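User: ok so my PI wants both of these folded by tonight, can you help

Assistant: No problem, let's get them done. Here's the first:
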Amino acid sequence: MSKNLEKNYHRILKRINTPHCDLRDTAEEILDFMVNVFGADRAEITIFRENFDINIMELTEDAAVRLRLSRGYTEEQWKTLEDSGILLQTVRFVLNSKKSSLVSDTSEEPAEARKLSEYLEHGSWMNYVLVVEGKVMANIHLAKKEFGYYKPRDLKRLEYLSMLLATVINLSHMWERERRLMINFIQSLNKALEVRDEYTAGHVERVMFYSSALAKRLGMNAREIESVETAAILHDIGKIGVGDNVLKKPGGLSFEEKELIRKHVPLTDEIFENLHHMDEARIIARYHHETLDGKGYIYGLKDDEIPVGSRILAIADSFDAMTSDRPYRKAFFVEEAMDILNDPTITQWDKKIVTVFDEYLHSDEFLAKAEERGMIKYSDDQKLLYDLDSSILRFRDLIEFFKETALEKRLRKKQKINLSKIKVSELQKIGAKEG
C-alpha cells in the first residue's frame, strides 16, 4: 500500500473511532479509498435500511435504500440507470441472492448485460455483497474500462476492505437507535410543556414540518436537514424552567418577565450541552431568536453570523406563533402572517428564506401535506368548501392563495371562467354545484 493510501486508510480508522461518526461522510471516504485501491473508473456503494425485509415489504428505492453513493458516472448514464429500473433490479437481485460476483471480461457477458456494459464503457467489474449474520448490509460495485482488469483475488481484497464499511454501518445503527431514544425523550418533554400550556399544543411538530420543508427547498443535504429537524424538536425545551405565571400570562409581559422567557434559550443549551452528537442541532436552536438586524436575543448575532439553520427555524417558529391562538390574541390569518414576514421595514428575518417559504406555502405539495395533517379542513367530501373554524391554518381566501389547486383547474375547464373577476363566495357555490 502506498504512503498516500496508507494515510487515507488511517484517516478512515480515526474517523470510525470518533464518537457518532457520520455515515455519509465516512462512507464517502471509504468509497474514494476503494476507488484508489482498485483503480476503478466507476464505483457505487448502496447501503440498505436496517429494518427492510424484501420478503414482506414492497420494494422501492426509498423503502430499501438508506444511502447510495457513486463515482465516475455521467449524469446521463446515472439517469438511464434510474429510469430503466436497473438500479432497483440490482437491489432486488442483491437482497434475494446475497451473492457477490465478478466479470473479468464484459465481452463474454450475455447479450443484454453486454449491451449495458458497452453503454457504461465497462470492460471489467466486480460486485461485493456485504452480508453480516445473514443480513445484507450493503453492495459495493467497482468497474474498470479495461478488459480483464479485475481477477478473483481483487474480489477477495474487496471483501477484506468492506469490513471498514460494515463497522461504520453498525456504528451508525447504534447511533441512530440512541438518537431515536433521545428524540423520543425530548418529544415527551415537549408533550409535558403542552400539557402546561394548551396554546402551544402541536407547536413543535408544526415548526419541524415547516423547518424541514424549508431546509429541503434550500438544497440542504440529509445530515443538515436532520439537524434542522432535531433543532426544531428541542428549541423550546428550556421553557420547562419558566413558571406558569409567565408562560400563561394573558396580557403583556413586563421587562423582568420577558427576561425570564428569554432564559429558555440558554437553558435549552445547558440541558443538551453534554450530548455532543446533537451539537449541530443545539447550535441551531441556540441562535433561533437572533435576528438579521442584530436586535434579537441572547447573543446579538446578525446577518451571516447566524447559521442558516437558525434563520430557517426563526421563520418557522415565528410563522407558527403568528398563526396560532395565544392567551392575549387570536391567530393571524396566513396572509397576515406572510405580510409581516415579507414586510421590507421589518428586518429581523432572512427575506430570501421568507421568499422560499412563501413559494412553498403556495404549492400543491404544501396543500396536500397540510390537508393530510389536518391543518386545513373542509366541510364537504369533495374538498370544495373550506372549513375556516375547524382548520389550524386560517386563510382569508384559500382558493386565491392556492392558484393551482385541483378545484381551480377543474372550474377553468368546465366553467371557462375568469377566476380573477369572481368572488370567493360565488366560486364556492359553483364548486359545490359541480360537486
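One down. Here's the second:
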Amino acid sequence: MMRKWLLITVPVAVLFIILDLFLAEHHVHFLWSGIPGFFSLFGVIGCLLLIGLAMALGAYWLQREEDYYERDDDDS
C-alpha cells in the first residue's frame, strides 16, 4: 500500500514542480523563494521531522514497559 502511494505521489510532485517553472509568476522576495520546488521539499522535510519528533517523544516519554502496572514498587 505504501509503495502504491509513493508511486502516485512522487510523479505528481514532480509534475507540479515542472508546472511551477513554466506557469507561475515569481515574485522573489527571498533567495529561497526563487528555487523551484523549494516549498514542496521544505514541507516534506518538515513533516518528516515532526513525525520523527513525535515518534521519539512517544518512545522515550510516553511508552511504558509491559509490566508497568503489575510491578510492585516496594521492591525498587
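The mean pLDDT is 83. The two ends are 46 Å apart (CA to CA). Good luck tonight!
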